[in-house]
Each structure stands twice: as C-alpha cells, then as structure tokens.
Amino acid sequence: MTIDRITAPEFRAIDNINLLRPAHQALDNGCNVFCFNSGDQELVRIEWIFANQRFNPEKPLLNIAVNTMLTEGTNTMTQAQISDKVDFYGAFLQVDYGYDNSLVTLYSLNKHLQHTLPVIKDILTDSIFPEKELATYIRNQQQKLQVSMQKNDYVARRNFNKALYGDTLYGLGADADTYKTLHREDMLAHFKQMYQPSNCTIIISGKIEPQILELITDTFDKSWTNPDVKPDATQPEIKSSTEHFYFTEKPDALQSAIRMGLPVINRTHPDFPALQVLNTVLGGYFGSRLMANIREDKGYTYGIGSGMSSLKHAGAMFIATEVGADVCKSAIAEIEKEINLLKSDLIPDEELSLVRNYMLGSLLGSLENVFSHADKFKNLYFAGLDYDYYDRYVETVKTISAERLKELANVYLDFDAFYKVIVGKY
Amino acid sequence: MVKFNRFTLDNGLRVIVHEDHTTPMAVLNILYDVGARDENPEQTGFAHLFEHLMFGGSVNIPSYDEPLQRVGGENNAFTSNDITNYYITLPSANIETAFWLESDRMLSLAFSEKSLEVQRNVVIEEFKQRYLNQPYGDVWLKLRPMVYKKHPYQWATIGKELKHIEDAKIEDVKAFFKKHYTPQNAIMVVGGDINLDQVKQLTEKWFGPIPAGEKYVRNLPQEPEQHDERRATVTAKVPLNDVYIAFQMGDRLDKTYYVAELLSDILSRGNSSRLYRSLVKEKQIFSEVHAYMTGSLDKGMFVFEGKPLENISIEMAEAAIWDELEKIKTIDIPADELTKVQNKTESTMIFSEMSLLDKAMNLASFELLGDADLLNHETGKYLQVTAAQIKELANNLFRKDNSSTLIYLAEKV
Q: How far apart (Å, rounded) are the C-alpha atoms in residues B413 and B393?
C-alpha cells in the first residue's frame, strides 16, 4: 500500500483551553494563600512572593541584594546550616529577583516538608545579612559583572533598559561602584519592611493533602506578624531617555548585538493580546518573519526574535539578535523592512491562520503540569487581571483580522521612534 | 516510575510508548544514534550541521516547520558528541502530523543547495556566537584535545574550525544521511495523551515502508589511559583568570558511573557542597568554582573549573583545588553527607517526572544504553553507592598524571 506523503494529515484546531483555578485562603496576618492541587507525584512547590519596595536611586541595589542574600544566615542558622538542611532533605530552595516582585521558592517532597518549612520561616523572619557574607557577595558580584560586561548581548540589554526606563528598578545597570552603596543596616531595614505577611502572597502547587496545607498555614499564620513599619511598593515615575541611538564599539567583535524596540502597552490594556499576535508574526516563533528573512534566507544570524515584556508599571516590545559584524547594517535594514511591511500590507490569511494555531498550541503546550497552571495565575494576579483575560486572549487569537493587525502596527510600531542599541561593530 | 510499552518494526526502528493522560499534549522524540564522535576528523562539526539541514525540507514536504506550526506544534533538536535528538510537542489530537513529518525526513531529505548554503552560514554564526565571540567561549576547543589524543571526543560538536563547516558539500550531506539516518539507527518515543494501539497503527503506516538501510557499525579509536600530566596556558582578552582541570573517567556503562555522579555532587552540587563552602566562602580563593562530569557514552571527563579572586595567584588557586581533592581521597566521607547527595538525587528523579518531554528524552537515552527500563532503576543505583567506593574512585581519578590543566590568563591591558 502506498500512502500519500504529500498531503498533510487532517488536523483539528484547538477549541478551548482549561486552566486550573486556585483555591484562595486569606490568613489573619494579611497574607493571601493560593492553592493549585493536582498531580500524581508526592511533592509541592511553594512560592513566597513579595512586592519590591520603592526604588531609591541613592541605594539602588537594596531590593536585589536583600533577596539574593536571604539564604546567607539568620540569628540561629549560618549560610552553611541553611544549605545543609535544605540539601539533606533533597529540597531545592531558590531566591529569584524580578523587576516587580522578589520570590523565595521551595521545591520539596511532601514527606520532608516538616523539616524544610521551618528553614523558610527562619529566613523570612530572621535573616541578618552577616557582614562577612555581604563582603563576599559584593566581591563576587563585581567579578561576575566584569565577565558579563564582555558579552555584547548583556551590554545591549543593559543599555536598552537604561534608555527605556531611566533611573528605576527596571533601568538599573549596576557597575562595580554601585555595590559600595550596600550597607548592612539598610538591608536589615529593607528586609523588615518588605518581608512581612501583608506584603506576601503564597502560591502552593502540587499534591496538597489537607495535612500539608495545614502545616503551611500553621507555620505562616499566627506566629508570623506584621512589624510596625508599612511596606511601600509604589515606584517613581519612569522617564525614557530622549536619546534613541546607542552604539558601543567593540573593535574585535566578530558579531554585533542588536537590541531595539520601544515602550508600549502592558497586559492590562485591551489591545495586549492582539499585539501579541502581531509580535508573533514578526518575531515570536521559529517561522516568524524575522527568522525566515534574517536567519533562514540571509544567514546573518544564529537567531533573531521579538518579544513583549509586561511589567507592573511599563510594557515594551523589542527585537534582539546577534549578527555577523560585517552585516550589522544590512540586518537592521531588514528589520526595518519587516516592521514597515506590517504597516503597509495585510498579513496573508495562510500565515495568519498558521500563527493562530501556533499560538493556541503553544498556550496549551505551556500548561505542562500543575506548576505551569500556577505560573499562568501569577501573570494575571500581579497584573490585577482575572481569568477572563485568557478567554479574551484565546478569542482574540482565533478571530483578530488582518486589517486590525495592520492598524495596530501603525499605532504601535513606529520604527523611527525605536530605541536602537548596538554593541560590537556598526 | 515511568511506565511504557515497546515494539520494533521489521525495518529495525525501535519504538517506546509512554501514555500520560494528565496532559492534552503529545510528544514525539527521535534519537538518532549518531554524534560528533562519528565524524571524519577532516570534516568535524558535520553531525551538528546536518541537524540544521534536517529542517530544510524532506523529499515530499518542502517545509518542515510550517505544517507543524499550523497544527499548534513546536519542535527543536540538539546534537551532542554522542547523539542527535529531535523532538516535537503538539496537541495530541494532531499527533499524526508529527508522524508524517518525521517519517518523511527519515525516508529522505530534499538535499537543497540553497538550504545547505544558508545553514552553513547560520552554523558559522552559531560558532561565532557561542565559541568565538564570548569570553572563555573557546575553552572546550582547547581542553578537549588535551584530554583526548585518539578518541573523536577531541573535537566539540560545533567542530574543530570554521573551515570544516565552510567546506561542507552536498555529496557529503547525502552520504552522511545514508550512513546514519536509518530506521535501525533510531529510537522513537511517543508519549503523552496517546494510546499504544494508535501509536502502533500510525508507526506501521508512516515508518513501516522506510527501507532498513545498512547497519552502521561503530568502530572508534579508543582513548588510552592517561599516564602523563598535561598542561597548557593561554592568554586572551578576558577580564579574569580561569583554571580548568580535567580528569579522564570511565564510560557511561562503567560500574563507577554512579559513584562519580555522587562524588561530583559532594564536591559541587549546591551551596552546601565542599568546593563552594570551602573555596568560595571560607578560604575566599574563588569567586566561583564548579566540578562536573561530561556524562558521555565513551570515556568521560571529570572537570573542575574556577575563577580565582583577583588577589589570588594561579598557583594558590590550583593548590586549593588539589587540597580539596586530597581531603576526599584520604578522609572518610561522613554518612550524612552521602545521604544528603543521595536524597537530592532521589528528589531530582521524582521532580523530573513532572515533565513529559524530559520523560520521553530519558526513555530514549536509556533505550540507547540498552534498556529504557533502566530509567526506573536509576535511584536504586545511587542509593547503593557507599562512602568507601567514592573515596576509592577519588583516588583512582584525581592523580596528577591523569590531569589536563588549562590556565586561561587575562591579558593585562
């Protein structure tokens, strides 16, 4: 029997996407707990999420340094004891600093949670940022920074953020001297103000048996109280730079890093899902126009993409790539061409239907396990949105017209208004 | 515990089916038993270049990516010194598209000159981006030939030099395909929201007609045991000095493999590990220091890597690493420390069952080692390792005359 290998098999479009919604519990101390109970493995991921405190340009590193150093010692445990205990019970303890929030995450087998939870409680309530560990932190960060500054893509990202976001948490690019502004007393004060129940959201995902939940709420409710100082998560107003072009020359560069883009709306704006469709067409997947043209047709780069960032106080659309140093100008010209095409020509039906299906499949595929459902919730919750956002997102992806996308390109994508950052040769 | 079923087609294609109905997705993973180690020394980087060409259209389907994206799927691939692995994830309702695409490129590629020309350029840019235009990016290009004198692990998957990529011809591409991309040289894992009968039927339909091809018999030069201390120093425009010490170790099926994993965990896994605690925190010799193993199928490398602080000489830095090695060679490992790394391994295995793609790739890798079910016995093997075995292995591995030391010096400006 011969089979038809030319014609693609029948396929089905994705109809609906089922997102797990959490159970909510408000603790007396003001901390909100959200539970995603699902999965076969006897384990949980617990995240403690704290809103970053107001940016102080005189002490710009407080939010990140306090978060990173939470595991460096408390009044009763040294850094060594903390890591010993976590590792001994096969758990994973992470601290993650984000632009808006700082996280402490524990991955633990349920059977060991009674041993691992008290460690988290200790670091969230009693961290002391020992002078010796602080000195080590500063020195090692300064050394790592020297290596990062040799990487063109790192420098490009840093210059881009600085141009878009100026003197804020989003625009911060520390140099070696910035670390000299870190002092233990400031960190202790910052810690006290930020790491309190009323500034905390706990998200639990995994197999949450009743006794597991009880263990968690017992540990983080009555015995965890708010101090007299109130958290302050307001942020200074963002002022983007008036200069739009930044070129950092690296004479020996084999490749140039390019990063360009501009401030746009964030997830809270009704146009956001539609703009994500436009972004996907431009550079949001392997078959995107930027990849098809600049990698697959011209061979200028190993990879090029566009993306959208949605932050609490800002949103941006950007394009990033590293291209052969000799083709930097040509690559930028091609990027401009692709942007202008979106503004002048309708996206063909064939391409748009592909992008619709790709985006829905990608959303479905991003829901790999219970942790991913919790991650989707975080996108909504911290943007002040509800689950109808994803209903709108799916609806927009399915139905948005080529005409509307062209309109949006004309509203949002002004190549002349782009911030353009180049590191390498130009 | 990862449950699966297994069958083999008449043409030699081995298929593993793992049902997981907690997800609406399916994954199709194909491992080809070919890597950079199978390359001609004069044509290195070829297995990886070939991986790129696998996306340049097949005999009946001009574009690989487009039809997959159209049904909501995503794909990627990677090449190592040992294997080349391709994977697709897509909504399970559209699983047949994955069979259609993968079977057609196993049947035959389009071998387009345009695709070869573009992918040569893309790979050259990848070579620059990852190896040449990064601080310390060329370390592996320098370290591998120190550790391996005979075995093809002496080159990295990207290849020895740009020229080998530039010179690739379409006839070479065809010959490589014929030699390595046959059903009997592949292992396919289908997982997720699918069932065994459906997979059997689809596999017969799409892969059954592909000719078996000729069996590739691997016959690589074996790397002799090392009995001489090797050293090299390079100077480059990097901000900090960097020290690498590599030791030859056993292959993946060697009985000491699991011992070596735990040895490396004790030395370097997480913030409670010995190197971090002693050399970063207490003695303050390094800003960062790590130990890891390459985990290759043939004789592997056990590598130490550290960036000393600016006030520390290279000699002091090296001596500090050797001090730690002496300790683990001479002093018994406390029971708690062993339990710690064993517990960590156990929970890592359980967490890895949260990811469908990880499970599929793991099943394929273990099938290549001889039996996919080995995946379910991994934890037990780690739990059987004793402190005495770790100490013994440390003594066997960490000898000066089994070491290759590469010193990367920051050029003074």
A: 43
